[in-house]
Amino acid sequence: MQEIIKMLICLYAVAFHERIPEGQTMFSYIKKDLMNRNFLYSGIPAVIYTIQNNLLYYSLSVIDIAHYTIMIQMKIFTAAIFSVVFLGRRLNMKRYFSLFLLVIGVITINLNLIDFSGGRLLGTGKVSTDFIKGMMAVLGGTVCSGLAGISIEYLLKSSSLWLKNIQFCIYGIGLSIIISFCDDKVWQYGLFYDFDWVVLLVILIQAAGGILVALVVKHTNIIVKGYASSFSLVISTTLSFLLFEDTTLDTTFGIGAILVVVAAHMYRKYGDETSKENKNVILASVSSSKELERKLEV
Prior knowledge:
Blueprint: H1 2-17, H2 26-34, H3 38-41, H4 43-62, H5 65-72, H6 75-87, H7 93-113, H8 129-157, H9 161-180, H10 184-189, H11 197-219, H12 222-243, H13 251-269, H14 272-297
Helix pairs in contact: 1-9, 1-11, 4-8, 4-9, 5-8, 6-8, 7-13, 8-11, 12-13
């Protein structure tokens, strides 16, 4: 449902905000883009995210939430490392340190939200084979997250934002249908069982959030998206504390929030000398890829 709403938003944007060449209708314009080989490339992030989700679901079934919370934040580092390796982005040591602060800050905030009253805790119990497999699954999930993130950034910056999102939505809808019908409850009660206005509101918010994330990645990069997500964690936790009674904030949250703010400030302050160079590297890699495709077509 979320992917369908995102596709409708993108179709609206193509119809009223995209420059469609003369002599083409909106649907012929979209069809031409879908028949391009880049449509196949758009399936790469979808496959990677599917693998990532399965790895993370498995890890949650065999390790405790505290270990999971700490390990999953490594996705911030994997996104940065893959950006450097595959996209040619350059980060100075101060920016690497700001990423380290960001990871520590997010972990600290998440630990404030964990209920340590039950279940396995950090440093308790024996290290079993399942536990090691679970930790390896989380690490695999963070690697997948980084790979999917940089592939999405590359694809978004090499094409129209709205056309590329339509391609992503097509893959997302297909995978969602397959996964949904693997659930026995869907066969028994139907796809829209127990839907109400709250569920629909959440779906609308998630769809709009997906478009906003694409805009952030398109006009900045996947690392900045990580900082934005960390800020959203601070804001959502604070709002939860103000609106609901089941969330408590203590010194741990305050320290984590301060670290996130300081990290974001450092990343912005100490990146001016490389921002233009990074942009040129991305644009050069995109243009060289298009030139290679033209030669292959010939």
